[in-house]
Amino acid sequence: MLRYKNRKRLSLIDDTCWLDVKQSNAIKKTVYYTFRQEILPYLPVTMFKKYFSSDFGRPTKDIQSILGLFIIQALTDLTDAEAIEAYCFHDTVRYALDLNRDAYLAERTYYAYRAKLLGEGNEVFEQVLERIGKRLNLEHGIQRKDSTLVGTHLKQMSKLELFRTTIQLFFKELNKRHPIIFSRIPEMTRERYFPSKDQETWFAAGKPSQYKECLIDAARDVLLLIDRFAQHASVAEVESFQLLQRLAKEQIHVQDDIVEVTLDKQFKGSALSNPHDPEARYDGHRKKVGYHVQITETCATSKELDNPKIVTQVEVNPANTPDVQTVVPGIDRLEQTGLKPDVLLTDNGYDSDDNHQELIKRGVELVCPPSGKTPDGLGVIDFTLDEDGKQIQKCPADKPCLENRVNEKRECTSSYFVVETCRSCPNSYDCPVKITKHKAKLTWNWKQPRLEARRLQFAEDPEMKKLFRQRSGAEAPMSILKNKMGLTRIRRRGRLKITLAVFLAATALNVLRTHQWLMRKALEAMSKSKMLSNYCPSVALYHLFCSANPGSRIQCSRRDDRWGMAA
Hints:
Layout: H1 21-27, H2 31-39, H3 63-76, H4 80-89, H5 91-97, H6 107-116, H7 121-136, E1 142-151, H8 159-177, H9 179-183, H10 187-193, H11 202-205, H12 211-229, H13 233-236, H14 239-251, E2 252-255, E3 258-261, E4 281-283, E5 288-298, E6 311-318, H15 327-336, E7 343-345, H16 353-361, E8 365-367, E9 384-385, E10 392-394, E11 403-407, E12 412-417, H17 419-424, E13 434-435, E14 440-445, H18 448-460, H19 462-468, H20 475-483, H21 495-548, H22 553-563
């Protein structure tokens, strides 16, 4: 039976009586107090309704406390064992999760709830973000976006290790599901991958010079197993057998009975890198295996303006996904959640003319360093174009264009000019028109004028440069997530588990920044109240002095005017 407290309702019973006055005052300055008061009552429980009845069965653990534990675990970078220990024994965590001191959580129960949360990390993140947005009256007009590679609990394998491990996984799964079929595999093949205790493994017995021979033999074993079980329906549906087929398709080539192990170019970056996590990809830029995480957060137009810098969107993609492909889908998702920005700050990796045009249609300005270099001389932008921007009417010297040949398929135009006029032109050395013996021709892409305009604007507009300086702050959440919350190398495998860990870490980061923002505002309000309390007694003494000394009324009136207290 689904069980959770209604924490939005005011409680008349103080269930934190085990804290003395000093402890209570101290914990109110920590993130645990902010989490308990501002976040815990608003954690969603609807995703668990499909697993538990609302009125029948054994009561569950308090769902909001369980979700809160996962967020606290991400915030403090705890292992699973440490998180369970904190739930049972740590008073700060119990306070944050609104638990009694006799609360207990078994390891099996912990993993059962975490498994049910797979695929639901985005809902938790968005519900907490909605609460934070209302609490802080969040401004989302200007946002910045950046990406990073998060590693997983995987080993980078050589080709021989990859083939050996994939075959071993298949043999283990086959022996578990179909032991009789496994026993029919030739004994020599089985002993290569599962030798007896007193035997040395086939791979360890080889010398380094025999590496290629061992690799070819492993590739032959893969082809033999595929040929043997491809028509066997119950074996062909085994996941590890499908990995064998994928491995053969990507890296094994047979020609005239000669087996070669080379990576097919069409699978570069997407090939199988580790059978324990088939969806993990290889990032050629950073030379690592993992997942690509996109982070979008709010920011201000300058450092002088205060802003809580809350993460508004998280995306987890394969490691070989280019940044440029994530801009438009990200804006569409932000629009669905009501957090679409007016200005998006990114680095050069997100720049493309298509992205600029699509974001203009959506009412968003993309500010990023334009790709390419500003032309040394004249550019297409210096020519007079028609309204459609597909044909040139006049050159920079105010000479008409003879002919425009428009290619709709390639989205480019070839413009022709008078050869004699171009040769005698004083701007011919700076002009992009190519002059040959019989013609003067300029072939240009329709995107080129827009690219040149953005380059000039970014190079010459001081307001644009000042605004773009705020993009550098996008590195801060990456540093916190990776160095303080353990996303440098996540202690999990599989895309669903990695995605859940990333969303929980982003939620924890928002909680931390909300706490810092509220504490800063509370300190500012406290300092103002102290100034006022220090000022008010002096005002009382001042008026008492004036009433006792009528001769100083003129001096008093001047002081009243200065402080704005004159009647």
